[in-house]
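[Q] Does anyone have a clean C-alpha cell version of this?
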Amino acid sequence: MVKKPVIALILAAVVTAGCALTTRSIAEIKQYPGRYDRRVVFIEGRVTQSFGGPLVPISYYKVDDGTGEITVVGAGAAPRTGSIVRVKGRVGEVATFGNRSFGLHLEQEHLSVRRW
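[A] Here you go.
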C-alpha cells in the first residue's frame, strides 16, 4: 500500500512539471529575462521574419504572439513568414548589462507549424 506522503509528493511533482510546460507570453519573457534564462519554455505566435533553408544548417526567425516579438534560433529550415507556430526552446541572452538584456532569443528544441 502506498503511503499518503508518497502520493502527495508524486502529485506535487506532476503539478509542478505541468506548470513548467505552459505557454509563456513573449512580453513576460522579455520583462523578466533572468527568471527564464537557460530555462525551457513554450511560445506560440506568428512568424514575422525568417531566414534559413534546407541547405543552411541554422535558421533564424522572429515570432510575435501579440504581446511582443522574440528571435528563435533553430536547426534546418525556418518556417515561412506568416506561419503560426508553437516553439519549445531554451531562453538565452548574448549579454546582460544592469537590468538590460541584449540578444534575448529562444534556442529551438521543437517546432510545430499549424497546418491550415
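[Q] Thanks! Anything notable?
[A] Residues 4-20 form the longest helix (17 residues).
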